[in-house]
Specification:
The complex is a heterodimer of chains A (347) and B (806). Chain A is α+β, with helices and mostly antiparallel strands and 347 residues long. Chain A has twelve helices and nine strands. Chain A folds into two domains: 3-93; 111-341, BirA Bifunctional Protein, domain 2 (2-Layer Sandwich), CATH 3.30.930. Chain B has six domains: 2-37 and 163-191, Phenylalanyl-tRNA Synthetase, Chain B, domain 1 (2-Layer Sandwich), CATH 3.30.56.10; 43-136, Beta Barrel (OB fold (Dihydrolipoamide Acetyltransferase, E2P)); 204-407, Phenylalanyl-tRNA Synthetase, Chain B, domain 3 (3-Layer(bba) Sandwich), CATH 3.50.40.10; 414-482, Phenylalanyl-tRNA Synthetase, Chain B, domain 1 (2-Layer Sandwich), CATH 3.30.56.10; 499-701, Bira Bifunctional Protein, Domain 2 (BirA Bifunctional Protein, domain 2); 718-805, 2-Layer Sandwich (Alpha-Beta Plaits), CATH 3.30.70. Chain B has 19 helices and 42 strands. The model of chain B has no long low-confidence stretch (mean pLDDT 93). At the A-B interface, helix 5, strand 1, strand 4, strand 5 and helix 8 of A face helix 2, helix 6, helix 9, helix 11 and helix 12 of B.
């Protein structure tokens, strides 16, 4: 049998075996068998000396072609087998993606914190400093500096937890107005601050009263601050918290530390002002107190009321949270039932 | 203050309905809390006359009445009232009527006899018990004879129930509306109307009042105004119905003509009056003075009071007969036999009145007005008006002249203001003419000197003394709704939280990321809770007058509040809980400190399972190391340049002595963590619970770790595992300490990956296995170098801790 025929037969056989290979291992055996150093092709080439000189190039070319053809077939088959094997592996690895993931608990911010942070962010964006103050306060700052001298009847409006005659738990964040104003250097520019924090009143806890709650005090003092600025600022807050469609309404009121003083109502967000149970059929909900800083307070802080003036407001995050989320009992805010807390996942 | 709109309409034209008035007043001056329409909801209540009365055959207290209600046939109505009698004109609820509380009246049979309706008491048609005249308190109401009524007419008009009453929620500065005349001024200003009032035209007898009574006022500062009149020959009887209606519609019970007149004048002018029975006064001199210590006084409410030397009294020659500005005394009160009346109109120092009222827990309509402020210009007229009514309604004779015990000079405040100033404060462009018009509407006198306005404010508006007060008047009458809406225009200011606040907020965020819900608990606790979890030599802060022992002390730790929260949740079947709180604790460093330090802390509590068992993993109860891992994560989030260590302690009584530790940073204690002492947990009914607390202020003060870039290492790290066997009491910290100090320069990490005791380990010993990572940033470490260092570590462990290398 001449060499040429042998090579052709080898090719024929090899291709058939490659095609029939069941797996990569078998394929590898076939590769070694045909293309290995001691494989038939190399052996055939070693017999070249028996071939005539003019046949040698032909045979050589044929041998190369056979080797290449086999190599190509192996590569192709290898790819096919690989893909088949991958498909099997993927099928085996298929899982039920609807099974629950491993639980990771995420904590929730308290709803009051959420409301306070939201309002604080708004005022920071408006250029206000946030200045916290002491919860245990002096009568001097809580009342006297705020134009509430010792015998002022309006002190009855706020039942106070006293520690001594002169020391008390602050009933409002307003004393921070005085603490900040008496230190403030107006050559540094206008004073714009909010002061958030806890306050305390000698109230019996019930659905609408809590002996502990929160306030955010606001204060802006400069040479040209107007009551219209107060109205615009409060409108911004009301819309930020309760929705862009809200209107506000100012009503006259009385606070010893502001004059004029106003209560601020926001148009009812439940009924849009038509009147409903939440707004007691008035269309309006009272949300905060505010006013122009009383000249006596400015004088108490060493500020000339003919030159400087401004506005102050005090809002209650507890009340805001209750209104915004329909919480009917203020005690829920302090019981910390996790089922209550975890409802409020933030906006 | 309840404002009868019918009464109001006598003084000022009301262009709107009472409901509209209430709405407008709420945005102009005084909030109207409630609109009361006494007749609302009532139906078929008419005047009837009892024509015949016979006893019910089957009852010892019921009567069968034939009642003429203006129809052809009289109605038969069974009535059980003790005061029912033939001939009376009464309130009849017809069949189908609605009386108070939406109760329906039907024809019925009472013990066999038909009843075609009901004869009503005032309470049954909605009157408050406290305003019903004494004689009708326990029976039906009977119309007085002098009132002309038509049988079958609705009763509402006759009884003043067709009125609309507005409940004014009066702020402390607006005491001027504690009288109808002041309210009329307010409403007139709102509507730009002119109020019109009647003034007294008194006929006096020739005899001067001075002849029968002397008045001596000891302290003209405390009692700036004290005036009296004497009225003789008074006949005491019930007031006419119109006067009674005025009183009950304003929440006051009619008593007799004299007392009713004083109350009526109080409601009208806002000036409290008092009437004494002259004949019961000992002697003929009244002394207005401070009480003697422990002086006895019996009020006309029948109560005995022991007075102090800070109470103002009106005394006769023997004893105190009235508590100034608050209440008259029982001994000189008006009775059916009174003939001569001393009427008093005065102004007592408001602070004294307020304190006396507080001291004796005796708040009255009079004291409220004295405390809040009177119209000092109204005293003489109010007194004269009362005297005039006594002549009209009690046939009295008024003796000549008021007796003036004290009368301070009255000066109207004059306040200067400019329109420019008003606009500057309000941000408006109101004209001078508008401003002047507003002041005139309010009844203020205005004179202008060029730009300058001088505003003279009547004394009824004692609350106005500064230009700011005038600006408030202008803006409320001008209308808050017309105020523009602007934002402050000024130099830009940077808005920010203090870095410290940001730090606290970041700590909160980390705790949430670690799976803890934020709680906000009460800062006032009971003493045990407030002082728990503290060993420091600090003094607790106690309230002077706590409301309950549960909220008597300011917390010195945050954990107690969180434990309360756990108790609350566990009682509600919530078992797997992780809560944190960030807030302040309060402690006095020295007992004599005026104020405590307020220290920002963060604390966490955890109980129950790490994760509930699920399809992949079995449940596992939380243990110390879960909590410690959380604390370590929180501490590392602070990124502070400091050595953190956990030092076992048994110093905190509420914690398990074998499972608690101080958290130290650079040798300084900044907090604690541990398991709740089983005994304490048992007291609280809590399962195994783990707690920690950190002092955020101390941690804040630590230096921050530098944030300068170190390139990621180019050379590979080498790890070596080392397992040792040591005595059980040898702590991990001790082992790590030895490794650290003997590891040479290249050790970058020690990781404990196994702790084992039991089989194959000698009793009293444990096996610890560590993975050590070495790295040289400048070169590839060779085995030789690493092995050298490892050998040094092993030698040291053996030498210092008697460790067996495994």
């Amino acid at each position: 049998m001449d060499l040429k025929q042998t090579l052709n037969e080898l090719r024929q056989q090899g291709l058939e075996q490659i095609k029939a290979a069941a797996n990569l291992e078998e394929l590898n055996q076939i590769r070694i068998k045909y293309l290995g150093k001691k494989g038939p092709i190399n052996q055939a080439l070693r017999q070249m000396k028996t071939v005539t000189a003019e046949q040698r190039p032909q045979i050589g070319a044929l041998a190369n072609t056979v080797r290449d053809d086999l190599q190509t077939a192996i590569t192709q088959t290898k790819d096919q087998l690989n893909q088949k094997q991958l498909a099997v592996q993927l099928a085996q690895e298929t899982i039920d993606v609807t099974l629950p993931g491993r639980p990771r608990a995420l904590g929730t911010a308290h709803v009051i914190t959420q409301v306070m942070d939201d309002i604080e962010h708004l005022f920071i964006s408006l250029g206000y400093q946030v200045i916290p103050g002491p919860e245990v306060e002096e009568d001097h700052y809580n009342f006297e500096m705020m134009n509430l001298p010792k015998d002022h009847p309006a002190r009855d409006m706020q039942d106070t937890f006293y520690i001594t005659n002169e020391i008390l738990l602050r009933t409002q964040t307003s004393p921070m107005q005085a603490r900040v104003m008496e230190q403030y250097d107006f050559s540094q520019g206008p004073l714009k601050m909010i002061s958030p924090g806890k306050v305390y009143r000698r109230d019996t806890d019930d659905a609408t009263h809590s002996h502990q709650f929160n306030q955010i005090e606001g204060l802006v003092i400069d040479q040209h601050i107007t009551m219209a600025d107060l109205k615009g600022t409060l409108e911004l807050v009301a819309r930020h918290v309760f929705g862009q469609e809200r209107q506000i309404r100012l009503r006259p009121s009385y606070f010893p530390f502001t004059e004029p003083s106003v209560e601020v109502d926001v148009s009812c967000f439940a009924c849009g002002g038509q009147g409903c149970r939440i707004c007691k059929y008035t269309g309006w909900i009272e949300v905060l107190g505010a006013g122009m800083v009383h000249p006596n307070v400015l004088v108490n802080c060493g500020i000339d009321p003919q030159v400087y003036g401004g506005f102050a407001f005090g809002l209650g995050p507890d009340r805001f949270a209750m209104l915004k989320y329909g919480i009917n009992d203020i005690r829920e805010l302090y019981a910390n039932d996790v089922r209550f807390l975890e409802q409020f996942q933030g906006e | 203050m309840k404002i009868s709109t019918k009464w109001l309409a006598q003084y000022v034209n009301l262009p709107e309905t009472p409901v509209e008035l209430a709405q407008r007043e709420s945005v102009t001056g005084i909030e109207v809390d409630e609109i009361i329409q006494p007749a609302a909801g009532l139906k078929k209540l008419v005047v009837g006359q009892i024509t015949k009365l016979t006893a019910h055959p089957n009852s010892d207290h019921l009567n069968i009445c034939q009642v003429d209600v203006g129809t052809d046939e009289p109605l038969q109505i069974i009535c059980g009232a003790p005061n029912v009698a033939a001939g009376q004109k009464v309130i009849v609820a017809l069949p189908g009527a609605r009386i108070a509380n939406n109760q329906k009246i039907k024809r019925s049979k009472m013990r066999g006899e038909e009843s075609q309706g009901m004869i009503c008491s005032l309470q049954e048609i909605g009157f408050d018990e406290t305003v019903v005249p004494e004689e009708f308190k326990n029976g039906i109401y009977v119309f007085p004879d002098e009132v002309t009524v038509s049988l079958g007419d609705d009763v509402y008009g006759y009884l003043g129930m067709d009125d609309t009453i507005l409940d004014f929620d009066i702020t402390p500065n607006r005491a001027d509306t504690l009288g109808m005349r002041g309210t009329a001024w307010e409403v007139a200003a709102m509507y730009d109307e002119q109020p019109h009032f009647q003034h007294p035209q008194l006929t006096e007898a020739a005899q001067p009042a001075q002849d029968v009574l002397k008045v001596n006022v000891a302290d003209q500062q405390l009692i700036p105004i004290y005036r009296t009149r004497v009225v003789k020959n008074v006949q005491v009887k019930p007031s006419p119905l119109w006067l009674q209606i005025h009183l009950w519609n304003n929440g006051i019970r009619p008593i007799n003509n004299i007392v009713d007149i004083t109350n009526y004048i109080m409601l009208d002018y806002g000036q409290p009056l008092h009437a004494f029975d002259y004949d019961k006064l000992a002697g003929s001199q009244i002394n207005v003075r401070l009480a003697k210590p422990q002086e006895a006084f019996q009020g006309l409410n029948g109560q005995d009071y022991e007075l102090t030397d800070q109470d103002i009294v009106i005394a006769d020659e023997q004893q105190a007969v009235a508590l100034g500005g608050i209440m008259g005394g029982n001994f000189t009160k008006i009775s059916d036999t009174t003939h001569t009346v001393v009427l008093e109109a005065a102004y007592f120092d408001p602070v004294h009145v307020r304190k006396t009222a507080q001291r004796h827990n005796l708040r009255t309509e009079a004291s409220i007005r004295h405390e809040k402020g009177l119209d000092l210009s109204a005293t003489p007229e109010a007194l004269d008006m009362a005297a005039q009514l006594l002549t009209q309604l009690g046939e009295g004779t008024v003796l000549k002249d008021q007796i003036i015990g004290a009368q301070c000079p009255l000066e109207l405040p004059k306040i200067k203001i400019t329109t420019a100033r008003i606009n500057h404060v309000l941000g408006t462009q109101i004209t001078q003419a508008e401003v002047i018009a507003i002041f005139k509407r309010l009844g203020f006198k205005v004179t202008s000197q060029g730009e300058q306005l001088v505003v003279e404010v009547p004394l009824r508006r004692w609350d106005i003394s500064l230009d700011a007060d005038l600006i408030e008047e202008v803006v409320r009458i001008y209308g808050f709704d017309k105020l523009p809406s602007t934002l402050p225009v000024e130099a830009q200011t940077p808005g920010h939280w203090e870095p410290q606040q940001q730090f606290y907020k970041a700590a909160q965020a980390t705790m949430r990321a670690l799976g803890y819900d934020e709680a906000i608990s009460y800062a006032l606790l009971n003493q045990t809770q407030a002082q728990a979890f503290t060993d420091a030599e600090t003094t607790a802060v106690q309230l002077a007058w706590p409301m309950t022992q549960d909220h008597e002390f300011l917390r010195q730790n945050l954990v107690s509040g969180l434990l309360n929260d756990l108790v609350y949740n566990i009682a509600r079947k919530q078992t797997d809980l992780a809560l944190f709180e960030q807030g302040r604790v309060f402690q006095k460093v020295h007992a004599q400190d005026a104020r405590p330090q307020e220290i920002e802390m963060i604390a966490g509590v955890k109980t129950g399972q790490v994760a509930q068992s699920n399809w992949q993993q079995a449940s596992r109860m939380i243990d110390f190391y879960d909590l410690k891992g959380d604390v370590e994560a929180l501490l590392s989030s602070f990124n502070k340049q400091a050595d953190i260590s956990f030092v076992a302690t048994d110093q905190l009584a509420q914690l398990h002595p074998g499972q608690s530790a101080w958290i130290q940073v650079d040798q300084q204690i900044v907090g604690f963590l541990g398991k709740l002492h089983p005994h304490y947990a048992h007291q609280l009914n809590l399962p195994a619970t783990f707690v920690f607390q950190l002092n955020l202020e101390k941690i804040w003060q630590l230096p921050k770790r530098s944030q300068i870039d170190h390139p990621a290492p180019k050379y590979p790290a080498v790890t070596r595992d080392i397992a040792i066997e040591v005595a059980k009491h040898v702590t991990n910290a001790a082992v790590e300490q030895v490794i650290q100090t003997n590891a040479g320069p290249y050790l970058t990490q020690i990781q404990l990956f196994d702790v084992y005791a039991g089989e194959n380990i000698a009793a009293g010993e444990k096996s610890l296995a560590y993975r050590l990572t070495f790295q040289d940033p400048q070169a590839t470490l060779t085995d030789t170098v690493v092995n050298q260092h490892l050998a040094a570590i092993q030698t040291a462990l053996t030498a210092q801790l008697a460790a067996k290398i495994r």
